[in-house]
Structure formats: C-alpha cells, structure tokens
Structure to design on (225 residues):
C-alpha cells in the first residue's frame, strides 16, 4: 500500500493510497476521527474500512488531516479539514480521470466532514457515517441529503448518544429520492471496543448490497393529471 504525499490547502498531506486495476473503478475516501483526540488515518476502523473498499475493487485513499502525522498545517475546527478532504478527492480524480463515481466513509468527526463533502460533490453516490455526533456538530446542511447511505452507531455510545443519532436519521428518512439505512451495534461504545468486527460486518453487508443493485430508493409517485 503506497505511502503518498499530495498537496493540500495548508501544505502537504500524507496518505495511504491503493489504486484499482480497473481504470474506471469507483473511488473511496476514508476520513478519520477528531485530530485533537487521537484520530489518525491509522485508526483501526479507518484502516479496516480502507481494506473493505480495496477488496471490492475500489481505488482507495485514507489520509491524515492537516497537522496530523506528516500532514502540514494546523487543526482548523472542520473548515480546513473539509478543504483537505476535497483536495484529497481532487488528487485521486486527477490520477483516475475515467472514474465516474465515488464513496465517502467517515468515522466520528470524519463522518461530519464526509457528509459536508457529500453536499459539495455530486459524483459521491454513497456514504457511510460511523458514529456521527449530531449532538456536537450541526448537520442541518443536509437539506436535502443528495445520496443514499449507511448511518451506524453503538447503543452504548456516550460521546454521540443514541437519541441524537436517531433524530438525525429520522430527519433524513423523510427526504424523498434517497434511502437511509440505519444500523445499531448492540453494546458498542463510541470506539467500538471489542465490536470492530461486528461494525465491519454491517458495513460490508451494506456495501455488497449496494454494489448488487439493492437498497434502491422507491421512485417518486407520479402525479395523477
């Protein structure tokens, strides 16, 4: 898995990149948890998600947000990190101009950044938001959410309480033209201690079903003239 350094808005960014053998393969970008609370691209969940997409033929990138590892710059409370993510996607797309679609997967803080990236990039056709924190971060920009995706959390998460995640899911589920799949890992905390395999199993199942053409939103009802 090649180590890569590419240019970001605040200097160089460090990543791990695995190109697909297929020129037109979809791209997957994996976004790590909060930089100020130990989040890096080597987080176990981020690492496993990277391999999950890679095994399914995606061109895959995970990277360190600014100020982490060998990535230059300083923490910027989300705004700069969103620019980092956009630059990361630009960089992969510059190497794979035939790739037409993209997925974004984010964990915790990374889920918030990933959902913002989703709003700005119409080529993102699927997302995974793992342990998002609507109790801390504002998700009201998802109006409307442009793509179907998976939201997954633990029912023992004290950092992102279940009731707050449920509120976000219910809000998104009212939107037409997309399908939000919500999974809860019983007994899991915010870090999925001892439950990473269960989490990955749910993510794999969701991705495989999407790639098989399942989990398609119902078409909008036709108006009677």
């Amino acid at each position: 898995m090649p180590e890569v350094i590419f240019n970001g808005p605040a200097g160089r960014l460090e990543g791990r990149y695995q190109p697909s053998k297929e020129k037109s393969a979809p791209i997957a970008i994996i976004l790590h948890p909060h930089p100020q609370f130990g989040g890096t691209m080597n987080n176990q969940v981020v690492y496993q998600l990277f391999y999950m997409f890679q095994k399914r033929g995606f061109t895959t990138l995970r990277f360190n947000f600014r100020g982490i590892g060998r990535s230059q710059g300083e923490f910027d409370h989300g705004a700069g990190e969103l620019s980092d993510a956009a630059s990361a996607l630009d960089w992969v797309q510059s190497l794979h101009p035939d790739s037409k679609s993209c997925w974004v997967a984010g964990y915790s803080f990374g889920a918030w950044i990933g959902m913002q990236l989703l709003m700005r990039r119409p080529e993102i056709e699927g997302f995974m938001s793992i342990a998002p924190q609507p109790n801390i971060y504002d998700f009201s920009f998802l109006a409307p959410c442009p793509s179907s995706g998976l939201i997954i959390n633990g029912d023992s998460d004290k950092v992102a309480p279940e009731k707050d995640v449920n509120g976000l899911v219910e809000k998104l589920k009212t939107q037409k033209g997309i399908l939000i799949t919500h999974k809860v890992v019983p007994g899991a905390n915010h870090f999925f201690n001892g439950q990473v395999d269960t989490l990955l199993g749910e993510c794999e199942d969701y991705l495989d079903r999407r790639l098989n053409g399942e989990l398609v939103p119902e078409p909008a009802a036709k108006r009677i003239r």
